[in-house]
């Protein structure tokens, strides 16, 4: 089944307002989809016998702050179908967007597909797909931790890699490294890439 | 704190669940994993893994470095299988380069075979380590030292070819850093014939078919095949559950389609399919399969035609065209995927490592329900995690 | 305090000068301590694999009397083998505090020494374990070979042998 | 003590001194000897254990402290003496300090009734066996105290496991001991040993198949009571960090360590005295002074087996441990007691049948053990074994 066929099936099911362009065909077939339709599409893709995408290989989050500044990037990937609405505008404002990519694979049919959805950075809400693929659990938590994407319906959306009291989402392009961090009520300096020399603590068990 | 209180109806005594904190410093969490274990005596009610104690910001580093200089960081993801990591990353970037005719990289056959040989050797080394640590979790210390000793011979081979013992930085985008030294092929076959194979027989005698070992590992931590797919388990975790899915066979990369080998699958010899023993034995059998692949690869490998052949294809600066790829390879622990997005510059726009341990570990909470504390250690050992890769 | 920082209870003030006896006791204690360094079996990252390799048949740390203990209460030495992250830092500190005196720390590998390859963009990495606990010996390398770790242990042995427990130290 | 006092009085020839003085001197001497044994044996045993384990694992073991590391454990003990002793803040201070003493005392007190040769016993009690069984069980109280007082969940779990295990295995151990009692018709260790005099064919293992079975059961139960692999679950390193002594440092930890090795010695000694002929040699009519070397040799062999088993076996799980104890060992040892009674009551003409069966059983077990030992013992031996199998 080609990528076009899959897209047609999806459009048939969810309408053109939810399913957008094929972003990429060779190597990694990739279809863009509206954030609101992710959960339904996931159920559809897993449930249909001739599609049966039963494995969620990977769930990645992306930060695309400069997307609108370089409008020529998109048309190269996409040639024939309708472009995403935010890129259809002739002179776009620089929009800070986040994206989530779902890489799906079917063990039965041995075919793969990537779904991609864009959300605005100030309201990054995507429905959680845990109910369809339990594997999404930790991936979604990681995407929340690193990018700050809110997965609606996730039962335990907390930071997974960083400590709970961490500020900011480090993989965003505009992230500023924090300079100190409290360990046992004692601030440790987290130097930026400078020539600052570390000051070692004097050993308690002194020698000589 | 999750803690259920139940009151005995006759005596009126309260029973409270105990919350144990296992790790980050614990002898058998294989690094700095922390398990929050809710127990009722010896019974585990639930074990919640907490990760991130080794989060070394790999993905942030990758965005700030050029494509070739990311490789040392890739090495340090799964530090027991650096060659396999490098291979996965190199293939990912090469695939991305292949999107445009201008940047396409042609690899010579010799490079492909060298990559396969070192990757399979590293798979053996990594599995030796796992078999050892798993048996040590079950209380047998000697198999661990024996297998570690055999691993040292493989490290010697790697040292000869790459100069490093643990983190090799050997497979680069567009080739490998050095050709095999003269006579290296013979050293590999000598090692396999004289050391590895007899020692594996010894290991089988000592531990694999040991009655206590089977009693401890079989029938514990059973994962059904449907569950394994739903949780996106991969590698020996998936094959131990009876699904014969191996990327080297089902989605061949490099030159793996040219070899004749079998996919080891858990057969439930002692107890249900998908138990800890099955996962252990799949890894044990994969060592044999890797030996087969290495032998065939050394046989088919073309001779070096010119001294710098393995490096000639490496461009000075790697600048893939714009686009995204998700490339997956079979790591010793499962499916290692690299999602690479390029914006046409010399640095990757975004790299996400889909680490097999990360996904395999996420089923831990489900598996731990209702087992004994001792079983918890067994299950954790059979998942085979490397925290460098889980936390990245 | 004129005497060395180690609490010796009633022994602490009972010797007044650098007599031959005290020097010999110091030597004997130093010998015992250096011959029996029990590190905590505690691995952090890549370097932990090389630390394990050092304890395994090829290198065999047991020759030097180095014998891994699982509990911090029973160890004399902590080998920081790998990257210390901010999330881990408080744990490392607590483990260090749980060890009984006299205690020693070896910082193994570049990450523990200074943050190593993660110095530049490691927003979650402690740039050198000496920011949180005192370190006796630094072993460079990424990762250091087991031979390098053994060298570090031998250096620490020399340091222990030369340190004074009972004798007065000139200020 | 009585015997020692008499011996002293006779050898010195001072008949005028009242007997009570000799009793006191004899008692003090015996206590001195016991203390020396208590102090030196663990030092030696730990050294032996480290060396044996190293050789099993292809290592060298301690080499730098003294000739071939002979002074290693002395250095360890000396270091522990000068180590800070930590009392955790939330611990029950009194129990925490008392616990190592209680454990140590249990082992120490049991030594008193152990015979080293004909009449060479600190206290030659009529019910010596019962006394030893009782005293070795005292240490479980200390272990529970340690686990409770530490205020550490791992310690508590270890202590609970230990209590369950020791109490369970006390039953088969007692039945095993009872078999020897039935065969000899006495509870006095000296008389039991005397009943096996007159050559190797009179040792209980060779005299009666039930004696042999009981010996094996007693040995297994002894392993469990001393927390040795495969029954080391109370201090399972990979599960419970260090079990009940997790929070102990310095000399207090050393007390636990020493008590464990003295308990091992007691188990080996019991096995040798009750079933392996005690201080009787292989041939009848040997001189009396040969008794001590014979007994020590037998104890040494048993000790070696205990140490060797520790390094080649994985450990059981809690429920499996209980299964082995209650469902296998207890019924079997009951059978041996009954069988021994039947043998004692059956006519002398049938004794030859019992003896032949006993020899056959012993032979089979010894042959299997030797083969297993050749596969695991030491590098050169193992290499020979591997080579011989390759030819065949």
Explained architecture:
The complex is a heterotetramer of chains A (208), B (392), C (171) and D (392). Chain A has a single domain (1-72, 93-197, 201-205), classed as NADH:ubiquinone oxidoreductase Nqo5 subunit (Beta Polymerase, domain 2), CATH 3.30.460.80. Helices cover 21% and strands 25% of the residues of chain A. Chain A has five helices and nine strands. Chain A has helices spanning 3-14, 38-47, 73-77, 85-88, 136-147, and strands at residues 19-24, 30-33, 55-64, 97-105, 112-120, 125-127, 150-152, 180-183, 186-189. Chain A has a five-stranded mixed β-sheet. A two-stranded parallel sheet of chain A has the order 6-7. In chain A, helix 5 links the parallel strand 6 (125-127) and strand 7. Chain A starts with a helix and ends in a 19-residue tail after the last strand. Residues 68-89 and 204-208 of chain A have low confidence and may be disordered. Chain B has 392 residues and is α+β, with helices and mostly antiparallel strands. Chain B is built from 16 helices and ten strands. In chain B, a hairpin with a 2-residue loop joins strand 8 (323-331) and strand 9 (334-342). The model of chain B has no long low-confidence stretch (mean pLDDT 85). With 171 residues, chain C is mainly alpha-helical. Chain C is 36% helix and 8% strand. Chain C is built from five helices and three strands, in the order H-H-E-H-E-H-E-H. Chain C has a three-stranded parallel β-sheet with strand order 1-2-3. In chain C, strand 2 (104-108), helix 4 (110-114) and strand 3 (137-139) form a beta-alpha-beta unit. The model of chain C is unreliable at 1-6 (pLDDT under 50). Chain D has one domain. Chain D is 71% helix and 0% strand. Chain D contains 15 helices and no strands. The longest helix of chain D is centred in the first third of the chain and has 38 residues, at 19-56. Chains in contact: A-B, A-C, B-C, B-D, C-D. At the B-C interface, helix 1 and helix 5 of B face helix 2 and helix 3 of C.
């Amino acid at each position: 089944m080609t990528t076009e066929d899959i897209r047609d099936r999806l459009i048939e099911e969810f309408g053109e307002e939810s399913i957008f362009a094929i972003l990429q065909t060779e190597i990694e077939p990739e279809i863009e989809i509206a954030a609101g339709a992710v959960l339904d599409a996931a159920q559809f893709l897993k449930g249909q016998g001739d599609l049966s995408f039963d494995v969620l290989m990977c769930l990645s989050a992306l930060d695309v702050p400069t997307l609108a500044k370089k409008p020529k990037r998109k048309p190269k990937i996409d040639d024939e179908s309708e472009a995403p609405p935010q890129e259809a505008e002739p002179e776009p404002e620089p929009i800070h967007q986040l994206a989530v990519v779902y890489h799906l694979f079917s063990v039965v049919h041995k075919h793969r597909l990537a779904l991609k959805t864009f959300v605005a950075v100030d309201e990054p809400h995507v429905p959680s797909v845990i109910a369809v693929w339990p594997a999404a659990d930790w991936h979604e938590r990681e995407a929340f931790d690193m990018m700050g994407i809110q997965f609606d319906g996730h039962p335990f959306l907390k930071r997974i890699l960083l400590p709970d009291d961490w500020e900011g989402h480090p993989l965003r392009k505009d992230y500023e490294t924090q300079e100190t961090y409290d360990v046992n009520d004692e601030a440790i300096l987290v130097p930026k890439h400078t020539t600052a020399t570390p000051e070692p603590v004097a050993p308690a068990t002194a020698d000589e | 704190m999750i803690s259920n209180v139940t009151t005995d109806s006759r005596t009126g005594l309260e029973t409270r669940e105990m919350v144990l904190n296992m790790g980050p410093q614990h002898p058998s969490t294989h690094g700095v994993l922390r398990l929050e274990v809710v127990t009722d005596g010896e019974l585990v009610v639930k074990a919640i893994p907490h990760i991130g104690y080794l989060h070394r910001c790999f993905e942030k580093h990758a965005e700030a470095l050029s494509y070739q200089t990311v490789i040392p960081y890739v090495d340090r993801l799964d530090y027991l299988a650096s060659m396999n990591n490098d291979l996965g990353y190199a293939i990912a970037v090469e695939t991305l380069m292949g999107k445009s005719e201008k940047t396409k990289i042609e690899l010579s056959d010799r490079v492909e075979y060298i990559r396969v040989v070192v990757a399979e050797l590293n798979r053996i080394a990594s599995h030796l380590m796992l078999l050892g640590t798993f048996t040590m979790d079950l209380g047998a210390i000697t198999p661990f030292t024996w297998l570690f000793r055999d691993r040292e011979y493989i490290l010697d081979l790697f040292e000869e070819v790459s100069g490093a013992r643990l983190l090799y930085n050997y497979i680069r985008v567009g080739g490998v850093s050095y050709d095999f030294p003269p006579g290296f092929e013979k050293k590999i076959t000598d090692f396999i014939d004289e050391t590895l194979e007899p020692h594996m027989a010894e290991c089988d005698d000592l531990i694999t078919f040991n009655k206590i070992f089977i009693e401890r590992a079989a029938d514990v931590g059973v994962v059904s095949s449907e569950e394994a797919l739903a949780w996106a388990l991969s590698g020996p975790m998936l094959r131990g559950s009876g699904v014969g899915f191996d990327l080297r066979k089902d989605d061949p990369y490099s030159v793996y389609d040219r070899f004749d080998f079998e996919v080891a699958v858990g057969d439930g010899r002692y107890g249900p399919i998908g138990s800890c023993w099955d996962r252990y034995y799949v890894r044990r059998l994969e060592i044999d399969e890797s030996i087969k692949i290495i032998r065939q690869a050394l046989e088919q490998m073309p001779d070096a035609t010119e001294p710098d052949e393995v490096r000639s294809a490496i461009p000075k600066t790697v600048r893939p065209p714009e686009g995204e790829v998700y490339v997956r390879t079979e790591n010793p622990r499962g499916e290692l995927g690299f999602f690479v997005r390029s914006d046409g510059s010399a640095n990757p726009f975004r790299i996400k490592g889909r680490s097999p341990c990360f996904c395999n570990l996420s089923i831990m909470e489900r598996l731990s329900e209702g087992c004994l504390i001792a079983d918890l250690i067994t299950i954790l050992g059979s998942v085979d995690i490397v925290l460098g890769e889980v936390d990245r | 305090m004129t005497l060395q920082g180690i609490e010796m209870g009633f022994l602490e003030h009972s010797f007044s000068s650098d007599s031959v006896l005290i020097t010999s006791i110091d030597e004997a204690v130093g010998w015992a301590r250096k011959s029996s360094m029990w590190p905590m079996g505690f691995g952090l990252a890549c370097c932990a694999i090389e630390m394990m390799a050092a304890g395994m048949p090829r290198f065999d740390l047991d020759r030097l009397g180095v014998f891994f203990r699982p509990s911090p209460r029973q160890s004399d030495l902590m080998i920081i083998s790998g990257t210390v992250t901010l999330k881990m830092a408080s744990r490392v500190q607590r483990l260090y505090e749980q060890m009984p005196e006299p205690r020693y720390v070896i910082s193994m590998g570049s990450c523990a020494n200074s943050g190593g390859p993660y110095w530049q963009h490691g927003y979650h990495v402690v740039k050198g374990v000496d920011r949180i606990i005192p370190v006796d010996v630094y072993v460079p390398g990424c990762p250091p070979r087991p031979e390098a770790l053994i060298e570090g242990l031998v250096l620490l042995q020399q340091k222990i042998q030369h340190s004074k427990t009972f004798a007065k130290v000139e200020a | 003590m009585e015997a020692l006092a008499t011996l002293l009085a006779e050898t010195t020839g001072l008949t005028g001194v009242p007997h009570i003085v000799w009793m006191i001197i004899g008692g003090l001497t015996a206590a001195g000897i016991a203390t020396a044994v208590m102090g030196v044996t663990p030092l030696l045993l730990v050294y032996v254990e480290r060396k044996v384990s190293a050789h099993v694992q292809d290592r060298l073991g301690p080499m730098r402290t003294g000739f071939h590391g002979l002074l290693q454990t002395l250095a360890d003990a000396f270091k522990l003496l000068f180590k800070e002793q930590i009392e955790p803040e939330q611990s029950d201070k009194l129990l925490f300090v008392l616990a190592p003493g209680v454990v140590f005392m249990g082992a120490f007190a049991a030594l008193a009734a152990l015979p080293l040769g004909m009449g060479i016993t600190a206290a030659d009690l009529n019910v010596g066996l019962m006394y030893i069984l009782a005293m070795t069980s005292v240490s479980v109280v200390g272990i529970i105290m340690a686990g409770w007082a530490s205020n550490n969940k791992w310690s508590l779990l270890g202590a609970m496991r230990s209590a369950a295990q020791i109490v369970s295995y006390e039953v088969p151990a007692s039945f095993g001991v009872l078999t020897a009692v039935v065969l000899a018709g006495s509870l006095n260790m000296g008389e039991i040993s005397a009943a096996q005099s007159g050559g190797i064919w009179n040792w209980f293992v060779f005299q009666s198949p039930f004696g042999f079975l009981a010996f094996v059961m007693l040995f297994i139960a002894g392993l469990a009571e001393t927390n040795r692999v495969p029954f080391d679950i109370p201090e399972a390193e990979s599960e419970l960090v260090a079990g009940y002594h997790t929070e102990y440092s310095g000399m207090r930890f050393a007390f636990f360590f020493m008590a464990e090795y003295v308990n091992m010695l007691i188990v080996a000694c019991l096995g040798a005295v009750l079933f392996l002929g005690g201080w009787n040699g292989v041939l009848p009519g040997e001189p009396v002074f040969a008794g001590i070397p014979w007994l020590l040799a037998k104890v040494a062999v048993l000790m070696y087996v205990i140490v060797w088993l520790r390094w080649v076996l994985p450990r059981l799980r809690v429920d499996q441990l209980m299964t082995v104890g209650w469902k296998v060992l207890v019924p079997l040892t009951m059978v041996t007691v009954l069988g021994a009674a039947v043998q004692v009551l059956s006519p002398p003409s049938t004794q030859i049948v019992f003896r032949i069966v006993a020899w056959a059983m012993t032979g089979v077990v010894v042959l299997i053990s030797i083969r297993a030992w050749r596969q695991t013992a030491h590098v050169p031996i193992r290499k020979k074994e591997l080579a011989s199998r390759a030819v065949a």
